[in-house]
Design a protein that fits this description.
Blueprint (H helix, E strand, L loop, with lengths): L1 E14 L14 E7 L5 H11 L4 E10 L2 E10 L2 E3 L3 H14 L4 E8 L2 E9 L4 E9 L1 E4 L2 H11 L11 E4 L4 E6 L2 H5 L5 H11 L3 E6 L6 E8 L4 E4 L3 H12 L5 E6 L7 E8 L2 E17 L2
Parallel strand pairs: 2-3, 4-6, 11-12, 13-15
Antiparallel strand pairs: 1-2, 1-17, 3-4, 4-5, 6-7, 7-8, 8-17, 9-10, 10-11, 12-13, 13-14, 15-16, 16-17
Helix pairs in contact: 3-5
GO molecular function, one term: isomerase activity
Organism: Embleya hyalina
Keywords: Isomerase
């Protein structure tokens, strides 16, 4: 596929802006390609992120619904293939849909692989605030063997982690690794090939390394996802859902996770827990539209 004055319109949405919310304009965020679904092969879908300069692409199809709540199917792709879920891609898709809808409020029933859930968006003057139900997150303690494979690839000594290491799964498993300080997090320099080999062997999507949260639930994180073709993610909302579920046991009902600083595109994702469910939120802005033509 290649860029052209004709062809498929692809919106570039910066998802999970830093400093969004009701009163802020927001900046940074994760550039995400969002487009109406089209009769493309999976190989062509995998090319969209490269051609649009994004890590992920979301294919949107409005497939009915009732009253003022449409049913919308979402499919997520990276260069490596299709994903069953993508949190920041869901934020981007809700912003894309809200910008095309009438009124300031938007609500839809979202269908992804294996899940049906509600998404909401509110249009602001400069961006869209999106929230959705991330569902239940599976958590377990990491094994010694898993840590022995992954921590050296991350460049982390076993005695340098801040607390227990967990495996979280909102659909695909990833390792959750705490470090004591933001400076330790910023200094990380993983070995990409070694990390991918370890994650592929264990069936992990990747790793989320995070700093100890403040008393108000604010923290920084870096997500390395080599097994889906993303060496480091600017914003990974599903990993934020895993952190929210894990930290709920420590009394945190709401958290705000800052990502993307190491990549020069600061992002923030909010998450909260209600019973066994996690809800996610982020601000997003549709920045431009490009056209890509199969060929």
């Amino acid at each position: 596929m290649r860029g052209s004055g004709r062809g498929l319109p692809v919106a570039i949405v910066h998802a999970c802006l830093r400093g969004g919310g009701a009163g802020g304009r927001g900046h940074g965020g994760s550039p995400t390609a969002v487009l109406d679904d089209a009769p493309l092969s999976d190989a062509e879908r995998r090319r969209i992120p490269t051609l649009s300069g994004t890590s992920h692409a979301v294919f949107v199809s409005v497939c009915g619904g009732r009253g003022d709540e449409p049913a919308v199917s979402l499919r997520f792709f990276t260069t490596e293939g299709e994903l069953p879920a993508c949190g920041h891609g869901t934020v981007a898709a809700l912003a894309f849909l809200a910008e095309r809808a009438e009124g300031d409020g938007y609500r839809a029933t979202l269908h992804t692989a294996g899940r049906v859930f509600t998404g909401r968006a509110t249009r602001r003057a400069t961006h869209v605030d999106a929230t959705f139900d991330a569902g239940r997150v599976g958590l377990r303690a990491a094994t010694a063997g898993e840590c022995d494979l992954v921590l050296p690839a991350l460049g982390i000594a076993p005695d340098a982690t801040a607390a227990d290491i967990r495996v979280g799964s909102p659909g695909r498993s990833r390792l959750l690794v705490p470090v004591a300080t933001r400076s330790a997090l910023a200094a990380l320099d993983p070995d990409p090939e070694r990390l991918r080999t370890a994650c592929d062997r264990l069936g992990f999507l990747g790793c989320c390394v995070y700093s100890v949260p403040t008393p108000t639930g604010r923290m920084a994180a870096r997500v390395f996802a080599p097994s889906i073709g993303v060496p480091e993610d600017i914003a990974n909302a599903n990993s934020t859902a895993c952190l929210a579920a894990h930290l709920a046991d420590r009394g945190f009902t709401d958290i705000a996770v800052e990502m993307g600083d190491s990549l020069g595109s600061p992002a923030t994702i909010s998450a909260g827990t209600s019973g066994a469910s996690v809800h996610l939120g982020g601000a997003a802005r549709v920045t431009r539209t490009v056209r890509l033509t199969p060929g």
